[in-house]
Amino acid sequence: MVINWYGQACFRLQSGKVTIFVDPFDKSIGLQPPRGEADIVMVTHDHPDHNNVSTIGGKYFLVDGPGEYEVKGVKIFGINSFHDDKQGAEKGLNTMYSFEVEDLRIAHLGDLGQKKLTDEQIEQLGEVDILMIPVGGVNTIDGEMAAGIVHQVEPKLVTPMHYKIAGSKSLINDASQFLKDLGHEGEAVDKLTIKKKDLSEDKMQIVEMKI
Fold first, then answer.
1. How big is the CA angle at 140 (ends 133 and 19), to the nearest 5 degrees?
2. Do 157 and 194 touch, CB atoms closer than 8 A?
3. Phi, psi at residue 143, to the nearest 5°?
4. What is the pLDDT of residues 1-29, one digit of tens each?
5. In which element (H, E) is residue 204 found?
6. Looking at residue 34, what DSSP letter applies?
7. Spatial distance between the Cα atoms of 200 and 44, rounded to a whole number of angstroms
8. Under a CB-based contact definition with an 8 Å cutoff, are residues 137 and 128 in contact?
9. What element of type H or E holds 145?
10. Which tens digit of pLDDT belongs to each residue from 52-89?
């Protein structure tokens, strides 16, 4: 499987002939919106920097809320969560996705604002191989909170998202605090090409991606 990051919370995952996009954004954040055709598009919540499905082509299946789905062999679980730490009172709801591709379980936490996950949410996410987690703060959890949630989930690999990068107009922080808290000092990669056998059972990998 090949994973590309476009900035903010948007990823493209390619598994054989199946293409998945998560959280395509619009141009308002200052970055170039993603382009391409998809079989599956997932949207975590209804904000312009996450729900610009019009930029994606193809006859895709849209997943935009909690529930269980299966599309072209991809099992998807949408899990209720909050966009803030006040039970959604300020920013509303957010859907986390846990989905299975090529025997890998991937979790995308969207604009999670909860300081901690509940036991029920952790159980619903399952045994996560690859975790995509927001770290920029302001509109989501910050780097310190995200590091704590990583320890709750215990994925085999984690990649940060939704943080300040060059060109972005989003008023959020960069990923430095998160990477420091997890002890990551490696170089950012253009894409992630991964198979189940590449993941260690003993040591978590931290992968910083670039667009």
1. 40
2. yes
3. -60, -40
4. 999 999 999 999 999 999 999 999 999 99
5. none
6. P
7. 29
8. no
9. helix 143-153
10. 999 999 999 999 999 999 999 999 999 999 887 888 78
